[in-house]
């Protein structure tokens, strides 16, 4: 009993000491570390250990004193301005002294942060910015001491110096306060001086600095804001150049080489940085980097295409650049990046970039007919190589190229026109790009497909189904065009419309039956959705065209063909489903 009371008294005394320490820390802001628990205590102290460094609270009086000191410093700046305006100091000397005065307070911010006075350092840096920015605007737009290029250099140099202090001392708030005015100041100075190029160069440089500062200090939002400012500035420059070219205002637009230099500089700084991190430092590209890369490609290469076209120069060199980049991206993706890595974001990203560069390069470099042939040939090569290197992604890229070829060659338009147009022309099908695309579209579903992830396999099967669907419909459209070409009646005759309607119904019925018959093969087991799609289209067509065209003989043939297909196609699909169930 006595031993229990003694242990209880010791525990109460220990808890009293702990409560006293907590009260002292709350009311006095003390940073002392808690005493270790008594060795005789039977209860373990499970409180988390105190951090090694703690930030002291800043009282309102301290903040007020910081504001007062900043006002005194600003008062010194206005005194220097009064001395300059009164003639005691030459204007150029006054401007130089003002710049030095602002830099002194940036240096003081670094010193204060080094002594642990972080809030004082932020106030010093902000005060230096309040002195430097108005002085820069006045020296550029009012006193004209600084040319646009020198003004842009001063703006970038001051902000980079402030960012160096902020990054070295980990002062996030100082970095934000110094950097945020950069874009508005650059745009204002560009408008006032009518010189966009120097200030856009400064924005690009600041975007590059904030990008790598974001990597070092994880200040990614700041880097994103500056990247957005640079993107916006270059987009404005491209639009201004194009609009000035349409107005034939050559004297109001920048030279073509300056615009291209800025656009390719945007690509080099940002995309070059991302490539360095991915290939040199073995990092996974982030969603923000992916988004910025897409914007950079759109503004950089798309803007370059717009300004080159507006200046009436040849687009072939830019197209060759895009094709060279596509080869580089494919080589990097398949040669340097692991395709079977669980996180394959880098591989997918660079292969998609290569796909985009191929499409853009062909569209820029070639005429429409040549472009269609090029897309078809590239699709053929991709489909043939996919199984050889065991790449499901390359097979899907071949699918994308073939879809582009179908659209670019006119195969899609001719097929739709064969089933829906008021009249058809057989000579449309005699185009070399169209026939080449039709042949490869018919062959592509029979190419061996490499094994891969489930989603890749699913996309591969769906692409094969689509190409088979396009093939049978295209052959049906070709049949309709041939019958219309052989029809002895004119296009305005009633007989011609009835023959055309009946032929289209027969082509749709034949397409549905052919797809249902193909579904018994292993690689075409999932064609039911395409068969029923054609049957639904046939039902609408009967109502909208065949019945409207009239004619007992024509309706007899149309209804007979469609009804027979409704009987035969589901049976073929059911037989294929039973065969699949027996195999499994």
C-alpha end-to-end distance: 78 Å
Beta strand count: 0
Low-confidence parts, pLDDT < 50 over ≥5 residues? 27-56
H/I helix tally: 21
In quaternary terms, these chains amount to single chain
Word description of this protein:
By secondary structure, the protein is an all-alpha fold. Among the domains are: 52 residues; 115 residues, no CATH class; 98 residues. The protein contains 21 helices and no strands. Helix 2 packs antiparallel against helix 3. The longest helix is centred in the last third of the chain and has 33 residues. The radius of gyration is 37 Å and the shape is elongated. About 5% of the residues have low confidence.
Outline:
The protein has 584 residues and is mainly alpha-helical.
């Amino acid at each position: 009993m006595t031993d229990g009371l003694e242990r209880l008294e010791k525990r109460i005394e220990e808890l009293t000491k702990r409560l006293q320490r907590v009260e002292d820390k709350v009311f006095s802001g003390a940073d002392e570390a808690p005493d270790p628990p008594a060795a005789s205590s039977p209860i373990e102290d499970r409180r988390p250990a105190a951090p090694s460094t703690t930030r002291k609270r800043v009282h309102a009086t301290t903040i007020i004193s910081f504001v007062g000191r900043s006002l005194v410093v600003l008062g010194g700046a206005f005194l220097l301005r009064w001395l300059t305006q009164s003639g005691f100091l030459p204007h150029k000397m006054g401007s130089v002294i003002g710049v030095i005065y602002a830099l002194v307070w940036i240096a003081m911010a670094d010193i204060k942060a080094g002594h642990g006075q972080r809030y004082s350092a932020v106030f010093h840096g902000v005060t230096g910015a309040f002195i430097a920015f108005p002085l820069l605007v006045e020296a550029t737009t009012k006193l004209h001491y600084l040319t646009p290029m020198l003004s842009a250099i001063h703006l970038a140099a001051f902000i980079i110096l402030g960012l160096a202090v902020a990054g070295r001392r980990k002062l996030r708030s100082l970095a934000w306060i110094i950097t945020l005015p950069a874009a508005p100041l650059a745009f204002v100075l560009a408008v006032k001086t009518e010189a966009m190029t120097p200030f856009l160069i400064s924005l690009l440089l600041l975007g590059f600095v904030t990008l790598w500062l974001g990597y070092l200090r994880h200040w990614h939002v700041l880097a994103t804001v500056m990247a957005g400012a640079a993107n916006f500035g270059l987009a404005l420059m491209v639009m201004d150049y194009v609009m000035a070219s349409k107005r034939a205002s050559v004297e109001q637009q920048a030279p073509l080489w300056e615009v291209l230099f800025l656009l390719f500089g945007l690509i080099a700084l940002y995309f070059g940085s991302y490539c360095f991190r991915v290939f040199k430092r073995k990092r996974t590209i982030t969603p923000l980097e992916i988004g910025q890369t897409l914007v950079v490609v759109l503004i950089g290469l798309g803007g370059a295409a717009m300004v080159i076209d507006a200046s009436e120069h040849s687009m072939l060199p830019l197209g060759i650049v895009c094709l060279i980049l596509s080869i580089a991206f494919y080589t990097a993706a398949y040669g340097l990046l692991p395709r079977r890595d669980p996180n394959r974001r880098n591989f997918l990203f660079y292969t998609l970039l290569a796909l985009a560069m191929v499409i853009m390069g062909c569209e820029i470099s070639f005429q429409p007919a040549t472009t269609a042939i090029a897309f078809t040939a590239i699709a053929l090569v991709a489909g043939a190589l996919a199984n050889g290197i065991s790449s499901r992604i390359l097979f899907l890229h071949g699918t994308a190229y073939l879809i582009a070829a179908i659209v670019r060659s006119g195969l899609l338009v001719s097929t739709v026109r064969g089933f829906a147009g008021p009249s058809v022309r057989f000579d449309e099908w005699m185009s070399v790009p169209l026939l080449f695309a039709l042949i490869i579209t018919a062959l592509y579903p029979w190419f061996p497909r490499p094994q891969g992830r489930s989603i890749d396999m699913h996309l591969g099967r769906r692409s094969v189904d689509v190409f088979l669907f396009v093939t049978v419909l295209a052959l049906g459209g070709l049949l309709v065009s041939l019958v219309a070409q052989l029809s002895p009646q004119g296009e305005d005759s009633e007989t011609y419309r009835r023959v055309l309607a009946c032929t289209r119904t027969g082509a749709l019925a034949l397409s549905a039956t052919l797809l249902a018959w193909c579904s018994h093969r292993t690689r075409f087991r999932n064609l039911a959705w395409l068969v029923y799609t054609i049957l639904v289209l046939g039902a609408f067509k009967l109502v909208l065209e065949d019945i409207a065209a009239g004619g007992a003989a024509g309706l007899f043939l149309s209804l007979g063909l469609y009804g027979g297909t409704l009987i035969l196609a589901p049976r073929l699909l059911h037989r294929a489903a039973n065969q699949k169930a027996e195999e499994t």
